[in-house]
Amino acid sequence: MEQLQYRRLIKVLEQVAVAREGELYPALAEAVAVHLGWIDAFVAKNPAYLALGSDGEEQYLTMFRPDFVEEYVERWRWNNPFASHDGVARLTRHGAATLGQLRLRATEPERDFADTFLRSHGIDDMLKIVVRSRSTGAVSTLGVPFDGDRRAIEPSDLLMAATLGPLLSPYFDSNLVPASVRDLTSDERLTELTAEWERRPTS
Q: Strand, helix or coil at 178?
């Protein structure tokens, strides 16, 4: 990953770190839009397909088009390709996945989810990122819709996504700013982030 990409991630974390209580999720949506170009990102808390023991009630912490969310819950939720065996496996193993990656093994209802439901809302692909609370184990997902005419998902987006998910975990535990993030300068954060990435397994 290039230093510019690290610096963009740091900008996201800095913006999230200063979010006031109750404003974490809108701050995150704004930060990824401004610094990563991920427009209209939204957070779903406790997705049943990733949260073991969940009652199946997802909570949408950042509202993306209320009509979209309502239609998804009422009609399309159980055809979500990210909830498929392949989707859950990719999200669990890599921390991020796209609809494009899941299409090859998708069932007809899952392809209909993408071709009918998402396309009707101007979405050609979706990037999904797992954020798992270190203290409680609770799972949230950050969903990023992509309009193919405006911008397609690039390999660099997937790399950023896989890196960002674990870095967001402390903020999903609480709105308190971790001291390790609060007290470091931007250059120190860059050094720490680079070292953390280099320690990650390559497989």
A: coil
Q: Could you report the per-residue pLDDT of 166-203, keeping only the tens digit for each?
A: 999 988 875 444 444 445 455 555 565 555 555 555 44
What six digits make up the tokens of 118? 């998402």
Q: Give me the amino acid identity at 144.
A: V
**DSSP for residue 152:** P
Residue 50 · residue 91 · CB < 8 Å = yes
Query: In whole angstroms, how far apart are CA 127 and each of 27, 52, 174?
Result: 19, 22, 24
- One-letter amino acid at 29 equals A
Distances (CA, A) of 13 to 35, 75, 120: 10, 35, 33
Q: What's this model's pTM, rounded to 2 decimal places?
A: 0.81
Give the distance, in angstroms, between the CA of residue 104 and the centroid of all CA atoms in the same chain. Answer: 22
Q: Are 182 and 17 in contact (CB under 8 A)?
A: yes
Q: Is residue 145 within a helix (H) or strand (E), and if so which, with residue range?
A: strand 139-146
